[in-house]
Amino acid sequence: MWLLAGVVVTLAYFVLVGYLARALRAAQRLPVVIASIAGLVGALPAVLYALYYALTVMA
User: Fold this and answer.
1) Whole-angstrom Cα distance, residue 5 to residue 13?
2) CA-closest candidate to residue 55, choices 8, 18, 12, 2
3) Half-sphere exposure (CA, 13 Å, Cβ side) for 22?
């Protein structure tokens, strides 16, 4: 059950990254797009760790 929740959160995160890349690509600012995606991907481990911590504290 918890694995499914983690998979859903991770997939939603990457959908958000894809949407952001598509939206920013229209602005023709490649360095901004690269920096934004790198920031979001860099934040993914912290998001997953926080989700894991919240699930283990409640269990």
Assistant:
1) 12
2) 2
3) 6
Residue with tokens 């901004």: 32
Indicate whether this model's pTM tops 0.90.
no
* pLDDT per residue as tens digits for the range 6-51: 777 777 877 877 777 777 766 667 777 777 777 777 887 887 787 7
Using H for helix, E for strand and C for coil, what is the string for 1-59? Answer: CHHHHHHHHHHHHHHHHHHHHHHHHCCCCHHHHHHHHHHHHHHHHHHHHHHHHHHHHHC
The answer to whether residues 36 and 20 touch, using CB atoms and an 8 Å cutoff, is yes
